[in-house]
Write a structure and sequence with these properties.
Blueprint (H helix, E strand, L loop, with lengths): L1 E9 L3 H12 L4 E5 L12 E2 L1 H9 L12 E3 L1 E6 L2 E6 L16 E3 L2 H14 L3 E13 L6 E8 L4 E11 L17 E12 L7 E6 L5 E7 L2 E9 H7 L2 H12 L5 H13 L3 E7 L10 E3 L14 H15 L11 H14 L1 H19 L3 H15 L2 H11 L6 H22 L5 H26 L3
Parallel strand pairs: 1-2, 1-10, 2-8, 5-12, 10-16
Antiparallel strand pairs: 3-7, 4-7, 5-6, 8-9, 9-10, 11-14, 11-15, 12-13, 13-14
Helix pairs in contact: 1-3, 1-7, 2-7, 7-8, 9-12, 9-13, 10-12, 10-13, 12-13
This protein binds flavin-adenine dinucleotide (FAD).
C-alpha cells in the first residue's frame, strides 16, 4: 500500500508535533509516524523556558501547557557551599509602551505535555497521525534523495509513506541520524532522577545545589511533586558500580545537602521511589545535505540538560523552519532547489537562538561539575555576580531563558563573570599573595575558555 503527502514526519515528540502543526496550518498535507502514541513516561523535558512558551504561542499551541498541572517557573535559585543566590527572568519593557511583560517558563510532567501536543496535532485537519515505527527510509535511486519511509504498524503490516519532504524528528536515540551526519552524540554523564512528594523552599524557582560534590537540580512538576536530578559522570558511576550504590550515595551524601524541609521526602523517595537515569548528550548540528530530508530536535542537535533548553530549541527551530518553508517562499515542497535553499538558510539562521542556549548549557554544566580550585573561583564569582542584582543577571537570565537571542552577548556575559571572579580574588588578596592570585587569575581565564570552546566550535560546524 502507498500513500503520498507533502510532508512525512518521523516521531511525534516535541519537535515532530511542533513542525507538524506549523506546516499543516500552512495547508501542507502532513503524515506523522509515531512509534507509540501512549503517554510517554520519561524523566526528561520537564522545564520549558519562557522563550519556548513564546515559540509555542507562535505555533498556536500555547494551550498545551494548560490543564497539565504545570507550575510557573520564574527563575533559578542556587545553593553554593553555604551561600545562596537567586535570579529571575526580569520584566521586558513592551515595545508599544504598555506594561512591562514578565517572561515566565513552565515545569510539568513531560508525558502530559506531549499528550496535549499530540492531541493538538491530531485535531489539525491536514494531519494524519499514525502509530507506526519508521523502519527504513526510501531513496530515489537516481538522485539519492529521500522520498519517504516505510512504516511498520502493530500486527506487522508495512506501508510506504511517500512525501516531497521527510522530517526526521525521532529523538536522541535516532536510528537514522548516522546516515546523514558524521558526528556522533557524546555522553559523559547521566542524570539520575527521583520524584519527591514535597514543595520547594522557594516556590516557582528551579533549584541547583552546587559545590557539595555532584551537582543536584530540583524543580516542581506538579502542585506537590518535585523532580530531583543528580548528575553522575560516567567515570564516577563506574566507581559506584550499581544502582544500589547510587541510592547509597544519595542517602549518605545528598540528603544532608538538601534543604531540611525536603529531607524526609527525599529519604522516602530513595527507599521506595523509582530511581531512573538518562544519558546527557552533546551533539552539534550539521546541515542536512540529503535532498528531501531535514533533521529536527534531538536527532539533529543536543546539549547538556542542566539548563533545560532542549525543548525550547526544538520549538524555536520549528517556528523558524515553518517560516522558511512558508508557501509564499516555497510554493511546492517538491521543488528540491527551493527546499535545499531553505535548509541551508535554516542551518545558519537557527544559530541565533540555538547557539546561546547550547553554549550556556554546556558552559554552565562545566562550571557546576568541576571541583578544582580554579573552577571554584568561577563558581564563587557566579554566585556573587548573581547576588549583585538585576543589573547583573537580567541579560544572562534572558539569554538562558531563550528570551533574547544573541550568541555574542552570551560570550560577553560568560567572560564578564570570569573576569568578575578574578576581580573578587584580587580584592581579597594581600600584597604578599598577589603574584599567586594573578597566576590563578590567568588559570581562571584559561579554565573559562576551556569550558566553552567545545560548544563554540560545535556551533561552527558546516
Ligand atoms: C535527563 C534529561 C533531562 C532533560 N530535561 C529537559 C528540560 O527540563 N527541558 C528541556 O527543554 N529539555 C530537556 N531535555 C531535552 C529534551 O528532552 C529534548 O530536547 C526534547 O525532548 C527533544 O524533542 P524531540 O522531539 O527531538 O525528541 P523526543 O521528544 O525524544 O521525541 C522523539 C519521538 O520520536 C519517536 N520515535 C523514535 N524513533 C521512531 C521511529 N523509528 N518511528 C516512529 N517514531 C519514532 C519517539 O517515540 C518519540 O516520541 C532533557 C534531556 C535529558 C536527557
Amino acid at each position: 500500500m502507498n500513500s503520498t503527502y507533502d510532508v512525512l514526519i518521523i516521531g511525534a515528540g516535541i519537535a515532530g508535533c511542533a513542525i507538524a502543526t506549523g506546516l499543516a496550518k500552512q495547508g501542507r498535507r502532513v503524515v506523522v509516524l509515531e512509534r507509540s502514541l501512549r503517554e510517554p513516561d520519561r524523566i526528561a523535558g520537564e522545564i520549558l523556558q519562557p522563550g519556548g512558551i513564546a515559540a509555542l504561542s507562535k505555533l498556536g499551541l500555547d494551550d498545551c501547557v494548560e490543564g497539565i498541572g504545570a507550575t510557573p517557573m520564574e527563575g533559578y535559585h542556587f545553593h553554593w557551599t553555604g551561600e545562596q543566590a537567586s535570579f529571575w527572568f526580569c520584566p521586558l519593557s513592551s515595545g508599544d509602551g504598555g506594561p512591562a511583560v514578565k517572561p515566565t517558563g513552565r515545569s510539568f510532567h513531560h508525558g502530559k505535555f506531549v499528550t496535549k501536543l499530540r492531541a493538538a496535532v491530531a485535531r489539525e485537519p491536514n494531519v494524519t497521525l499514525l502509530q507506526a515505527t519508521a523502519v527504513e527510509l526510501l531513496r530515489d535511486e537516481r538522485t539519492g534523495g529521500i522520498v519517504g519511509a516505510v512504516g511498520s504498524r502493530e500486527g506487522g503490516s508495512s506501508t510506504e509513506y511517500r512525501a516531497s519532504l521527510t522530517i526526521l524528528s525521532d529523538g536522541s536515540a535516532s536510528n537514522f541520524r548516522a546516515q546523514f551526519t558524521h558526528l556522533r552524540p557524546q555522553s559523559h554523564s547521566r542524570f539520575w532522577g527521583l520524584e519527591l512528594e514535597a514543595s520547594l523552599p522557594k516556590p516557582n524557582y528551579a533549584h541547583g545545589i552546587l559545590g557539595h560534590g555532584l551537582p543536584i537540580f530540583m524543580y516542581q512538576i506538579g502542585p506537590h511533586k518535585i523532580r530531583m536530578f543528580i548528575d553522575i559522570p560516567n567515570t564516577a558511576y563506574r566507581r559506584l558500580g550499581s544502582t544500589d550504590a547510587v541510592r547509597a550515595y544519595l542517602r549518605e551524601r545528598v540528603i544532608p545537602t538538601v534543604p531540611a524541609c525536603m529531607q524526609a521526602s527525599l529519604t522516602k523517595a530513595i527507599e521506595t521511589g523509582r530511581l531512573r537515569s538518562m544519558p546527557n548528550s552533546w551533539l552539534p548540528s550539521t546541515r542536512t545535505k540529503a535532498p528531501g530530508l531535514i533533521m529536527l530536535g534531538d536527532s539533529a542537535n543536543m546539549r547538556h540538560p542542566a539548563t533545560g533548553a532542549g525543548m525550547t530549541v526544538a520549538l524555536k527551530d520549528a517556528v523558524l523552519l515553518t517560516e522558511l518553508l512558508d508557501p509564499s517562499r516555497v510554493a511546492s515542497l517538491g521543488d528540491t532547489n527551493a527546499v535545499t535553499n531553505a535548509v541551508g538558510k535554516f542551518h545558519w539562521k537557527r544559530k541565533r537562538h540555538s547557539a546561546p542556549l547550547n553554549i550556556v548549557a554546556e558552559g554552565m554544566y562545566a562550571v557546576f561539575v568541576a571541583d578544582d580550585t580554579t573552577s571554584a573561583v568561577i563558581q564563587h564569582g557566579l554566585i556573587r555576580y548573581i547576588q549583585g542584582g538585576e543589573e547583573n543577571f537580567a541579560m544572562p537570565g534572558w539569554l538562558m531563558g531563550g528570551v533574547v537571542e544573541s550568541p555574542l552577548l552570551l560570550l560577553y556575559h560568560f567572560f564578564k563573570v570570569a573576569i568578575y571572579s578574578n576581580k573578587l580574588r584580587l580584592c581579597e588578596s594581600t600584597w604578599v599573595g598577589l603574584p599567586v592570585v594573578i597566576f590563578q587569575s590567568l588559570l581562571t581565564i584559561c579554565a573559562a575558555v576551556s569550558m566553552i570552546w567545545r560548544p563554540v566550535i560545535g556551533e561552527l560546524q558546516l
